[in-house]
Amino acid sequence: MGAAWTFERMWVIVALISKGMFLGILGAAVGLHPVTASADAADQDVQSQHISEPEPNLLRPKRANFAKTRASADVMHMADWIVDSGDNHDLPFVLVDKKGAKVYVFHGDGRLLGVSPALLGLAIGDDAVPGIGERKLASILPEERTTPAGRFVASMDHNLHGGDILWVDYEGAISLHPVITSNPKERRAQRLATATPLDNRISYGCINVPAAFFKNVVSIVFKNTSGIVYVLPETRPVQTVFHSYNRIPQ
């Protein structure tokens, strides 16, 4: 009987020890669980905070400043893209809107300095005839008198008579200059004064603006510096010429 009791007692002791070890392991596991859950929750909070933080300036493209001046969608699209992309390299720039027969002059930072009606090439079209700049005016046919679209590095100069001009495309003999009124039959000054752009196609390709606008705006902003002239197309989308934004911002 004593031996049996001793044997049973040993099994009880072994059972208690085993049970104690199991509870200890279980307790340790249970004790670690809240810490792990807390750490996971903290990681999730950090990730949530990181995802919700906005990226400053990256989603805010720069815009040209037109003040209260209205302009066509193409003009606004191009001006915004020029300023946002830095395509003008902080130089003053000009937008020539052939459809609206207007010229927009901007400071290098995108502030509109002035806008004016303009006279343009007689013919509708966006490409220059090869070698046209070397030909005499009398040999240029009416259908060849286009104001070519594109991006041009421009600077002030003088014409053969000593007058101020802004060279747009030297090889193509295209410049922006004060309106020429030497031929009364062309009524160039009167064409500039009308409200409609329908009578503004008269030149061999050059861009004519009122004399006061050239003196007080163009020659001032381009004084002692070069700039960029963007002649907008009239037969195809602006994106195909300048590789600007894929769509016009609303």
Structure description:
The chain is an alpha/beta fold and 250 residues long. The chain has two domains: 1-53; 73-242, Beta Barrel (L,D-transpeptidase catalytic domain-like). 34% of the residues lie in helices and 20% in strands. The protein contains five helices and ten strands. The chain has helices at 2-52, 73-85, 188-193, 211-221, 238-242; strands at 93-97, 102-106, 112-117, 120-121, 150-158, 164-169, 174-178, 201-203, 207-209, 227-231. The strands form two sheets. It has an eight-stranded mixed sheet, with helices on both faces. The protein has a two-stranded parallel ribbon with strand order 4-8.
Major sheet: 8 strands, mixed
Gyration radius, in Å? 38 Å
The appropriate CATH architecture of the largest domain is Beta Barrel
**CATH-defined fold name of the largest domain:** L,D-transpeptidase catalytic domain-like
List unreliable stretches of 5+ residues. 1-39, 41-57
At the first level of CATH, the class of the largest domain is Mainly Beta
- Determine the fraction of residues in helical runs and give it as a percent range: 25-40%
